[in-house]
Amino acid sequence: MVSPGRFDGKTALVLGVANKRSIAWAIAKRLADEGARLAFTFQGERIEKNVRDLAESVSSPLVAECDVRSDADLERVFGQVGEAFDGGLDLLVHSVAYAAAEDLEGRFTDTPRDRFWLALDISAYSLVACSRLAEPLMEARGGGSIVTMTYLGGERAVPHYNVMGVAKATLDASMRYLAWDLGQKNVRVNAISAGPVRTLAARSIAGFPTMEAIVEERSPLHRHVEADDVGAAAAFLLSDDARNVTGTILYVDSGFHAMGM
Ligand SMILES: NC(=O)c1ccc[n+]([C@@H]2O[C@H](COP(=O)([O-])OP(=O)(O)OC[C@H]3O[C@@H](n4cnc5c(N)ncnc54)[C@H](O)[C@@H]3O)[C@@H](O)[C@H]2O)c1
Questions:
Q1: Nearest-CA neighbor of 223 among 232, 231, 214?
Q2: Which of 38, 64, 107, 191 has a C-alpha 20 to 30 A away from that of 235?
Q3: Which residue is closest in CA terms to ligand 1's atom 12?
Q4: 151 labelled catalytic
């Protein structure tokens, strides 16, 4: 059940909306429904209109282009966020990942150096850069909460997930170190490990339908995960209900991670 007004007076920056199926959008909708004011970033002209239309539907005061590989983009965006939200920020949603399509099929062993670092830069380092820039804005508000999106492929070998699994392992460890550093400022940092959700990014993983079918067959709950399930869990982690939860991974995967076979 949605608690009305859980985010009244709160401000959030959401990175990673590409379209209405994005996990970031499911989280954003939940935050907006419960009273938060939201700023969005998008990457690339191709998705700009989608993101602007979605942002408008929740009366967002700021939509900014941001490629997380660029420190200049990140610094500009966090400056704009500070201006839009009177020098403060309460919540940060990091829902960004990328690996070249050819590295999400075939053998992990064949990943070339440049594309290995590209996947880690976009999918893991970006959380570090965003958290560093969010820190003073959250400190100005007396604390904050950051949520990122991970996957079991960072803990176990999942065929085809390949370099993205290595990026998620780096993301998970970064999340824990950030939780330690930023805990001093009353900023919490957590991750959600989602089961397969049909999104744009998921479509580039070879064998994604097999991943879905296996979760349905072998997870304790025998059902698919929807983006809205992830939205609800993220809202919990971002809310004061989770005030003593940090440095952790919350699994929204129908229980699949608990199984050995
Ligand atoms: N869909 C799933 O099954 C699933 C499962 C577990 C975790 N996740 C994670 O959830 C997150 C969101 O993915 P999604 O499934 O909603 O797909 P999505 O394609 O909707 O979102 C991925 C986002 O990353 C953004 N992005 C890529 N490169 C970028 C860059 N250089 N700069 C800024 N943004 C960039 C894209 O624009 C897009 O908005 C990712 O971290 C993904 O790994 C997804």
A1: 214
A2: 64
A3: 95
A4: yes
Residues 6 or more apart whose CB falls under 8 angstroms from that of 174 comprise 124, 125, 127, 128
pLDDT digits (tens, 9 = 90+) for 78-118: 999 999 999 999 999 999 999 999 999 899 999 999 999 99
Domain 11-254 has CATH 3.30.540.10: no
Ligand 1: nearest atom to the Cα of 164: 43
What does the alpha-carbon distance between residue 83 and residue 88 come to, in Å, rounded to a whole number?
9
CB 188 within 8 A of CB 245: yes
User: What are the domain boundaries of the chain?
Assistant: 11-254
161 catalytic, yes or no? yes
- DSSP label of 223: S
Amino acid at the residue 148: T
Indicate whether 235 pLDDT > 70: yes
Calculate how far, in angstroms, residue 164's C-alpha sits from the geometric centre of ligand 1.
Answer: 11
User: Predicted confidence band at 204 (pLDDT cuts at 50, 70, 90)?
Assistant: confident
Cβ(165) – ligand 1 distance below 6 Å: no
